[in-house]
Request: fold
Amino acid sequence: MTSRDRITEMFRFHRRPSFSNNFSLNKQILTSIIRPKTLATLRRLDTTRKSYLFRFLHESRLIFMLNPPFINLDGANLSSIIIGSLEEGIDMRRVFLSNVNPDNASFTSVSFGNSVFKYTRLRGPAFHSVSFEYVNFVGAQLQEANLIVTNVYKADFTSVNMMGAKISQKQINSIGSISLVIFPDDSQGRNPNLFTDSNCEKFINETNSQQNISINRYREWLIQIGWQHDGFIYYCTGWFDKANDL
Reply:
C-alpha cells in the first residue's frame, strides 16, 4: 500500500450496522471528527506525505470554498509542502486556506484563482508560475516571499505584510486593493483617490476615509445598498479604482 493509499484509508468512514437504513451522520458531526484528525496528522507527517494529504483534501473537495468549507484548515501546519511541478499544472482554484501556515512551501504551475488566503502566513515560499488572480489575501503575511513569477491580477492585498518580498511595480499596479499594505520598502499602500480638488484630498487625508476596506467588504456593501454596478460613493472617494472590475 502506498503512502497515498494509507492516507485515503485513514479518512474512510465505515458505518456501523445500527447506522443503516439511509442514516447519514450530520455534516457538523463529521466535520468535528475530521478537522482535529486532519490537523493532528499534518503536524506529524513528513513533507512527502503532507503534500499527498493536501492533494487528497483538494481532490476530494474537502477544502473547496463553500460557506463554510467542509474542512476548515485554520491553524494547519502546511510548512514545506511541495505542490505541482514544471511538467504538471494543477488547478486549485477556489480553495479555502485561511490562517494556515505554509512556510517554506513550494508551489509550481498552480492556479489558485478566486481562493481565500486570509491571515495566512506565507513566509519564504517558492512560487514558480503560480496564479493568484482574484485571491483574497487580506491580513496575510508575505514576508520574504518571491512573487516575481506570479499573477496577482485583481487580488485583494488589504493589510498584507510584504516586508522583504520581491514584487514588481507592474504587478503592484495590477492588484485589486493595496489598502494598508506594508511594501518591501516599509511604505504603506493606499488605493488611488479619484478626487483631484485639493480640499477633497485634504478631507480624505485628515479623516482617514481610505481605511481598511477589503474588496470582499466592498462587494457586500454594494449588495446591501443595491448598487450592483458603479457603487457611486465608493467609486468617487477612490477606495477602488474600477468598481466593475472587482
